[in-house]
């Protein structure tokens, strides 16, 4: 694929991704998406009272379940709250469109990040953009009201800036890390699931710095940027609650079970499934055939990574590979910890690490399949992912029509 063909493909992909998201926003009734009412209540509180809420302990009512969340998304969405009275039957439409816009910008960031990592591999660039644009869970959730979409946007921007810093090597300026730190702070101020990006960025800072003196300078700039954007919220938590983080999922006083292989394996499987395909409260039962398809896609990508390692290829910078690998490990570890501690094993918590995950997916598929088959593979992935969304949209429309 030439650069011009790739750009036309990405433009068409953006149009398709936008249309699918708008369809989800219209088809899904208000408050039927997971936790949407609780997120709405947070936005309503800020708009009504002009201040941040205090998380009760325990959180007994749905209006209180998300009040522990970082506030940036809700502060940005609050000016849109008066729009809830404009369209009868679709009160959340304007705020859902805000999330659609954020997800579309995220796809654009993924394109530029992929282009900087795979300068000569346009197939890998197109695959990364296709999967992010039409990933069923992300497509559905980015058309509903939730703070994770903003966190994914900032974390993706941060991964892009870090990748550029790693590729430039010694040419990077120390002060650049203040901007990366500021983006890290904004990501944490959106949702704490972006903590994996922060940890991986710190590892990259250490790996790419030639001396302890340079590490000290860059670390200082990074800390200054993060503190300038998110420091006040952590300080507020300490003053209000006596700790930097305040996480109370609900009032049922869930007690984590003992750590066991069976329990953690089950959580990992559920996280995998809900990363790829889950479509809301009304149909959270498992689509066995859909999940089987994603097991195959992930398995093929892993085979491609093994082949890449066996061939001892070096067309992917090792510093970037370490950075992205650490980010994925940290994201999975934090997601498993949250699943074990709060009984919430959801793959969407790994969305802030979308760029690292899709980079390895694209690298594996581009290595496994010869270049003469790349266009066939790309068209197949596009048709499959688009087809899944269309089938689910039709099924959702039928179900919601039946229940009124």
Number of helices: 15
What does the main sheet amount to?
none
State the separation between the terminal residues, measured CA to CA.
47 Å
The average pLDDT value, as a whole number, equals 90
Overall 3D form:
globular
The share of residues in helices is 55-70%
Contiguous low-pLDDT stretches (5 residues minimum) are: none
Summing up helix and strand content along with how strands pair, one would put the structural category as mainly alpha
Strands, total number: 0
Indicate the proportion of strand residues: under 5%
Order of helices and strands: HHHHHHHHHHHHHHH
The domain count comes to 1
- Gyration radius, rounded: 21 Å
Describe this structure in words.
This protein has 404 residues and is mostly helical. It has one domain. The protein is 68% helix and 0% strand. Helix 5 (122-134) runs parallel beside helix 15, helix 9 (195-208) runs antiparallel to helix 13 and helix 12 packs across helix 14 (354-368). The radius of gyration is 21 Å and the shape is globular.
Provide a compact summary of the structure.
By secondary structure, this protein is mainly alpha-helical. The protein has 15 helices and no strands.
């Amino acid at each position: 694929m030439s650069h011009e063909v790739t750009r036309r493909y990405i433009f068409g992909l953006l149009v398709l991704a936008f249309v699918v998201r708008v369809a989800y926003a219209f088809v899904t009734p208000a408050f039927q998406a997971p936790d949407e009412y609780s997120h709405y209540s947070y936005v309503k509180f800020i708009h009504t009272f002009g201040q941040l809420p205090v998380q009760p302990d325990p959180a007994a009512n749905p209006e209180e379940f998300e009040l522990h969340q970082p506030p940036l998304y809700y502060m940005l969405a609050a000016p849109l709250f008066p729009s809830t009275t404009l369209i009868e039957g679709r009160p959340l439409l304007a705020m859902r469109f805000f999330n659609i816009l954020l997800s579309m910008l995220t796809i654009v960031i993924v394109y530029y990040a992929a282009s900087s990592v795979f300068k000569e591999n346009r197939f890998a660039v197109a695959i990364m953009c296709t999967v992010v644009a039409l990933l069923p869970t992300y497509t559905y959730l980015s058309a509903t009201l939730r703070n994770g979409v903003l966190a994914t946007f900032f974390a993706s921007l941060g991964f892009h800036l870090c990748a550029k810093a790693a590729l430039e090597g010694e040419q990077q300026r120390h002060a650049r890390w203040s901007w990366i730190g500021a983006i890290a702070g904004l990501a944490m101020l959106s949702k704490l699931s972006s903590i994996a990006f922060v940890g991986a960025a710190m590892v990259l800072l250490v790996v790419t710095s030639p001396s302890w003196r340079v590490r000290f300078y860059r670390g200082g700039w990074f800390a200054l940027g993060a503190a300038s954007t998110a420091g006040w919220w952590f300080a507020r938590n300490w003053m209000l609650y006596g700790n930097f983080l305040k996480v109370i999922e609900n009032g049922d006083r869930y007690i984590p079970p003992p750590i066991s292989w069976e329990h953690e394996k089950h959580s990992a499987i559920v996280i995998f499934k809900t990363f790829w395909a889950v479509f809301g409260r009304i149909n959270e039962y498992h689509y066995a055939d859909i999940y089987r398809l994603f097991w195959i896609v992930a398995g093929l990508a892993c085979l491609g990574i093994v082949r890449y390692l066996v061939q001892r290829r070096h067309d992917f910078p090792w510093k970037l590979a370490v950075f992205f690998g650490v980010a994925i490990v940290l994201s999975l570890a934090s997601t498993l910890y949250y699943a074990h501690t709060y009984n919430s094993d959801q793959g969407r918590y790994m969305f802030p690490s979308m760029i690292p995950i899709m980079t390895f997916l694209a690298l594996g598929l581009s290595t496994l399949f010869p270049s003469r088959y790349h266009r066939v593979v790309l068209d197949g992935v596009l048709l499959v992912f688009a087809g899944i969304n269309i089938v689910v949209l039709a099924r959702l429309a039928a179900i919601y029509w039946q229940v009124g």
